[in-house]
Write a structure and sequence with these properties.
By secondary structure, the chain is of the alpha/beta class. The protein has eight helices and 16 strands.
């Protein structure tokens, strides 16, 4: 099992996702002789997991069942242990796109946090890319490094415990892209500039406050970055429902509608006389956005470092 390569069968030491429902999942590490308790009963790792195919339906000790899924960055994002606030797939997808990440890319990241974005980056740059990730907090850095090893991606990432604003990323002239998720990203811009390859590359900074964005953009301009833009990604759910709309009467030339009389077969067409009117109406499906939507994730500021 690896987060960047698909395996068919579950082995001891693998991390798997136990799927109890769309709103209920949990990651576990498979160990011979171990058990995992769920609301449907116990899962015995040796008999129920090891040697089974990923995606199998497993019956628990109480008779209920679960699915055992192969881990992906998206599943890990919604199941990981939170050591910090994390980025979710909506922002991660835009970051991956706008930074132009691809297999073989070299990326510098700060801070590592809970590793949500890190796993998505690693899958994108595998098998020949590399991630240099910096975490200020020693215990978080150690835990992230252990997770990368457990998830079989340790060879693709270097974790450093240091202050990126003072010590930089620990590398110079190697990065195709840089990502910053720190309280004062403007203090790390000069170090990010040094980390880029001579041909340049793309930078992204995530900040929850517009004042942070303003200072970051000012510093980016001072350091010669170009194509600076800031966006916020919000997910909006549309309400799909049936509505009844009146059909106007345009006279006998209107394809069979004459003087408000219905000439179509109501059994085959969803057209019928409107209640208490004498005019026709039609039922249709429509999608409407919410009138109000409270929500704020954070601002993504992108910039390009030119060649040289």
């Amino acid at each position: 099992m690896s987060f960047v390569e698909y395996s068919e069968f579950i082995k001891e030491g693998d991390v798997v996702i136990i799927f109890l429902g769309h709103e209920s999942m949990m990651p576990i590490k498979v160990e011979a002789g171990a058990q995992t308790q769920t609301r449907y009963g116990a899962i015995r790792h040796s008999s129920d997991l090891i040697g089974r195919r990923f995606g199998s339906k497993v019956t628990c000790s109480k008779g209920g069942w679960v699915y055992v899924l192969h881990p992906t960055p998206e599943l890990w994002t919604v199941n990981l242990p939170h050591r910090t606030q994390i980025l979710y797939s909506t922002d991660i997808a835009n970051i991956t796109l706008m930074l132009d990440l691809k297999p073989g890319s070299v990326v510098c990241e700060s801070g590592t946090g809970s590793g949500s974005l890190s796993h998505a980056i690693l899958r994108t740059i595998a098998p020949s890319g590399h991630l240099h990730t910096v975490e200020f907090h020693a215990q978080r850095a150690e835990k992230a490094a252990q997770e990368f090893r457990d998830h079989k991606v340790g060879h693709l990432v270097t974790v450093r415990n240091q202050d990126v604003c003072k010590e930089g990323f620990g590398v110079v002239g190697v990065a195709d892209a840089v990502f910053l998720d720190i309280p004062s990203p403007w203090e790390a811009i000069t170090h990010a500039k040094k980390a880029f390859k001579r041909k340049g590359g793309r930078l992204c900074s995530f900040s929850p406050c517009i004042e942070q964005v303003q200072r970051t953009c000012e510093t980016l301009l001072e350091q010669g970055f170009q194509e600076i833009c800031t966006l916020e990604v919000l997910q909006r759910v549309h309400d799909v429902r049936s509505v009844t709309l009146p059909l106007p009467d345009f006279g006998p030339e209107n394809g069979g509608v004459e003087s408000g009389k219905m000439t179509t077969d109501p059994a085959s067409e969803d057209v019928r006389p409107a209640a208490n009117s004498g005019y026709l109406s039609v039922n249709c499906r429509t999608a409407t956005p919410p009138r109000e939507m409270a929500g704020h994730t954070g601002y993504l500021t992108f910039a390009t470092k030119p060649r040289g």
